Amino acid sequence: MSTNTQRLQVLIPESLQRRIRKAAQRSRVSAGAWVRRAIERELAGERPAADPLDRLSSLGAPTGDIEQMLAEIEAGRG
User: Fold this and answer.
1) pLDDT 10s digits, 4-63
2) Does residue 1 or residue 29 have the better pLDDT?
3) Is 20 exposed, middle or buried (0-12, 13-18, 19+ CB in 10 A)?
4) How far is residue 20's CA from residue 33's CA, in Å, rounded to a whole number?
5) How many Å apart are CA 48 and CA 50, to the nearest integer?
6) Between vectors from CA 36 to CA 35 and to CA 41, what angle results, nearest 5°?
7) Nearest to 19 by CA among 2, 37, 31
8) Is the pLDDT of residue 1 over 60?
């Protein structure tokens, strides 16, 4: 990052803040670093790869208790 930095305050909804924090944790960077990278990618016209967890959650696939799901899988093998 440049030594000549400026502060930018942007108000965002709490839900977006949570998503940014989770994405930053997955990328192992601070939320600020993650946002700076996202802004740079957008300004450069780059499209980031879809977040696999976001993609999975958008599928609307059935979910349930892991023990129940494993039991159902095992029962189907019989």
Assistant:
1) 999 999 999 999 999 999 999 999 999 999 999 999 988 988 776 777 777 777 888 877
2) 29
3) middle
4) 10
5) 6
6) 95
7) 31
8) no
17-26, long-range: CB within 8 Å, 24+ apart, which pairs? 23/51, 26/51, 26/53
What token pair was written down for 36? 């700076």
**d(Cα 78, Cα 74) in Å, to the nearest integer?**
7
What is the pTM for the complete model shown? 0.57
What is the separation of C-alpha 13 from the centre of its chain, rounded to a whole number of angstroms? 16
Going from N- to C-terminal start, the domains of the chain cover 14-59
pLDDT of residue 18: 95
Tokens of 9: 């305050």
Q: Which residue has the tokens 């450069």?
A: 44
